[in-house]
Amino acid sequence: MTVEELLEKYAAGVLNFSGVDLAEANLSGVKLSGVNLSNANLSIANLSGANLSEANLSNAKLNVARLSGANLCNAILNNASLNVANLIRADLSRAQLKGALLIRTELIRADLSRADLSEADLTSADLREATLRQANLRHANLSETVLRGASLTGANLEMANLNASDLSRCDLSGANLRDTELRQANLNHANLSGADLSGANLRWADLSGANLRWADLSGAKLSGATLIGADLTNANLTNTIFIHADLTQAKLIRAEWIGADLTGATLTGAKLYATSRFGLKTEGMICEWVDLSPAGDRSIIQKFHSEDSRDFFNETPPTIRIIVDAALEHEANFAIAGAYYQIAQEYRGLKQPPSIESSRRRTVFTFYVDSDEALFSTAYIVILPFLDAASTQKSIASVVEMINSEVITNQDLKSLKSPLMVKQLNILLEQAINQATTIKQTKKNIEVAAKLNFCKAPTQIILTNSSAHTLIVHDNPNFGKRFINRSALNASTYDDISNESIKYDILPSLNMVTDFVKGFHYISN
Hints:
By secondary structure, the chain is of the alpha+beta class. It has ten helices and eight strands.
């Protein structure tokens, strides 16, 4: 069939030209909207500027075809072969390209918005400055593809292969890159804000200057990656692997990175305001200084000498555990949640609710704190919903007084711990005492919780510092002594128990307190 015959039949209303052979034909500028060219051979054909919107080109051969400026909006190109084709500035918006072959295809400035390219092969394709907003590229092969300056906002690239691809200055904000292969990819100054990169393989990738604000990189692999000057503000880096990665002057403000592996990584000049320094693997890490200023403007610099950075970063997060000698019931769970919500409104040190572990006999509330010196003050506050609060608070005050006395007389402690740390510890406790009074007077949920039998049960309060040393600051004498029917005990009986615990509460020994404080990791700002 000649081009003239096809156009004549199309003008007469014929749309089905399935399997037609038009290799090397000149169809530039033709209008064939809605035409059926499935299984057609259009290799080396000239279709520049053609209107093929809503056309069916599934399984068609378009290798080395010229389609620059062509209108393929809503066209069906599933399993079509477009290898080495010229689609510069072509409109492929909402086109279906499932399983299509686009190896070494030129798609410079092409519009592929909302196109379905799932499982398509775009190896070594040129997509410079192309638009792929909300495109589906799930399982697509984009290895060694050039996407420099392209827009992929909201695109789905889950489990796609982007190994060794050029994504520099690419806009991937809000994109789904879950479990995507990005080994040795160039993401220099790319916008990945809000992107989901959980589980992605970014080994040896270049992310220098990239915008990763609010991105999810949990469980991602970034071994050997370059993140110099990258912005990871508020990013989720939980269990992320940064082995031998370069994070020089990276912005990690308010990032969540519990469980991150920074073995052998470079962190010199990183901005770490409001970022936890615990729960990390840091063996062999290189870090000469960090920026702790709120704005990341180097107004607060922490320098390190030799192995000092090991005291700053630590694998063990400081925790407070309240062990209640009773099973958690729904009513108590609801009341305590309300109590801690109100406490958090007044006490900023309670940044997140406790993790709860409940069995048929006991309940454990675990609180994480940002620093060792905040352990005592936070424990003073979080015990408030329980009847053991008074005895625990008295014990905490006594332990801190022991620390104050020991720092004055004990040369070992004096040489190991900065007086500023002890001063900070006292300031925090004094603030907690004042806030505890306010909370008890103004927060009604505390009163509601305190009336429950669960909150009147005996407790143990165990502190764990960043060196994994523990200290029991309160151990109710009745803890572990099971009553025949604890629920039958009246309020006065519980009050008697509480009063006894205040009277007979046994403080930890001076040696135990001293060893616990020696395990503090404190670096003055």
